[in-house]
Each structure stands twice: as structure tokens, then as C-alpha cells.
Amino acid sequence: MNAEILAVGHELLMGEIVDTNSSYIAQQLSGTGITVRWMSHIGDNIDHLSDAFKRGMDRSDVVIS
User: Fold this and answer.
1) The CA-based dihedral angle spanning residues 34, 35, 37, 40, taken in that order and rounded to the nearest 10 degrees
2) Strand order of the sheet with strand 35-42?
3) Phi, psi dihedrals of residue 47, rounded to the nearest 5°
4) Other CB atoms within 10 Å distance of the CB of residue 58
5) 3 state SS of 5
6) How far apart are CA 44 and CA 41, in angstroms?
7) How far is CA 1 from CA 11, 42, 58, 63, in A?
8) What is the bridge-based pairing of β-strands 62-64 and 2-8?
């Protein structure tokens, strides 16, 4: 099973905070046999987030945000 992680927030894109949550989630998923194929940072824009979810659903079995 393949997964994609979407981390959302302007702060992530600007480098104001470090995304440790995605790394933790990927590690936990890996322990259950789920392979994380993609991780993306998305700003606080509903259109961009919607596009990212659509893309994720097309190429992954699971999308986590």
C-alpha cells in the first residue's frame, strides 16, 4: 500500500517551522507496512490544497494531511 503525506501551512513553506510531524507519520506508517511515496508542503490556499488532494488520490492508496 502506498501513501502520501500532505503537510499544510504557510509557516512550513516559509521555513518558519520545521515539519517534524510528516517524518514521524512516515516512520509510523512504515512500521505497519505502508510505503510513503510522496510528501508535500501546501500553503494555506484551498485551491492548491484541493489540487494536492486530487493528485494524491490519483497516485496513492492513502492520503494523510
Assistant:
1) 50
2) 35-42, 2-8, 62-64
3) -65, -40
4) 9
5) strand
6) 10
7) 30, 23, 13, 11
8) parallel
pTM: 0.90
Distance in angstroms (rounded) separating the CA atoms of residues 3 and 58 = 11
Q: Which residue has the cell 516512520?
A: 27
Q: What domains, with CATH codes, occur in the chain?
A: 2-64 (3.40.980.10)
CA 61/CA 14 separation, integer angstroms: 29
pLDDT tens string 31-52? 999 999 999 999 999 999 999 9
What is the pLDDT confidence band of residue 10, given thresholds at 50, 70 and 90? Answer: very high
Q: And the C-alpha cell for 26? A: 512516515
Task: Read off the pLDDT of each residue in 44-63 and give the average, rounded to a whole number.
Answer: 97
